[in-house]
Amino acid sequence: MLQQVNQIRKSNGLNELQLNIPLIKASNWQASNQVKMNKISHDGPEGTYTQGMKLTKGNAPHDQRVLACKFTGWPWGENTAEGHVNITNVMTDWMKSEGHKENILRAESKYFGAAKVGKYWVQSFGKDN
Q: What is the number of other CB atoms lying within 10 angstroms of the CB of residue 28?
């Protein structure tokens, strides 16, 4: 998936992203959350982001997840999808959606992680502080 993201970014004059283990963990965490909830979401089960910890007011669930996974930069965005058969298919759909496309093409982003669990896909993006 990183190869396709970087191809798209490069064709738009942007830097390539670097794979980041904490962002991979955060993506896997959320893909697993979605399996547990049986729905696509940026939230965790029962309004939590995971492990029963409540969200801090004003912080997005994906911010909470990537910080809990020890990402040392600034969490920048999360894309979620469900039911796509392959990477090309999910990337095509994300690029048709303004919000998802914006995350993929955000110039400030430097780091990337992704996961697929069951039918759920997640991308996480981040930058340096």
A: 19
Q: Domains in the chain, ordered, with CATH?
A: 2-127 (3.40.33.10)
One pLDDT digit (tens) per residue for the chain, 129 residues: 999 999 999 999 999 999 999 999 999 988 998 888 888 877 766 555 444 444 444 345 667 777 888 888 886 789 999 999 999 999 999 999 999 999 999 999 999 999 999 999 999 999 988
Query: Model-level pTM?
Result: 0.85
DSSP annotation string for 67-98: HHTT--SEEEEEEEEES-SSHHHHHHHHHHSH
